[in-house]
Design goal:
single chain, 188 residues, mainly alpha, three-stranded mixed sheet, 7 helices
Length: 188
């Protein structure tokens, strides 16, 4: 496996573990969606994204440098990066972010820029199809069917945790995000 190359201005930082709870992951994904897209994510979009991030990060326990999507460096990456071992044990350069919101925004920006076709499946609440499309587009190289099955199970878990029967668990963080976003725009 080749070592992912970062841009010339990228800066190597110390590898740091940044674990989060399932609630924190959902909150940062929702808040950063406002920043990237200018609106709150739908429950479907947030649920599929949450499922992917939970899979990518060992349910938040193996989150490194606030890199929500385990995004490797590219020659265009000019930010911070850290060296981690990938799934086959070789070293690879992965993006590192200074905050959880920056990492979640980086995830959304990458989806919008390179994997936008998959977002249609996110929006329809089709996690298995989203996983297959992400694989087709090159987001991950693992066999797509086991990943798709896990996306589906984690999406069901998201709906169980956040969408049943009380929406309060989901709406309260989104309401706080909306208020913060509106206040930020008004003061700009």
């Amino acid at each position: 496996m080749t070592h992912a190359q970062c841009g010339d201005a990228a800066r190597l930082v110390e590898t740091r573990r940044t674990p989060m709870t399932y609630q924190e992951v959902a909150l940062h994904l929702a808040r950063s969606h406002w920043e990237v897209f200018g609106e709150a994510p739908t429950s479907n979009r947030l649920g599929v994204a949450w499922a992917q991030v939970m899979l990518e990060t060992g349910r938040g326990t193996k989150l490194w440098g606030y890199n929500f999507g385990n995004i490797i460096c590219s020659p265009h990456w000019m930010g911070e990066f850290q060296v981690l071992r990938d799934e086959v044990g070789g070293p690879a350069n992965y993006r590192a972010y200074p905050t959880a919101d920056a990492g979640a925004a980086g995830y959304w920006k990458l989806l919008r820029r390179r994997y936008g076709a998959a977002l249609a499946f996110f929006d329809r609440g089709q996690p298995e199809a989203a996983a297959r499309e992400l694989h087709r587009l090159g987001y991950f190289t693992a066999a797509p069917e086991p990943v798709a099955k896990t996306f589906g199970a984690l999406y069901a878990e998201f709906n169980e945790r956040f969408a049943r029967p009380s929406w309060a668990g989901m709406l309260a963080p989104l309401a706080l995000i909306a208020v913060g976003y509106a206040t930020k725009k008004a003061s700009a």
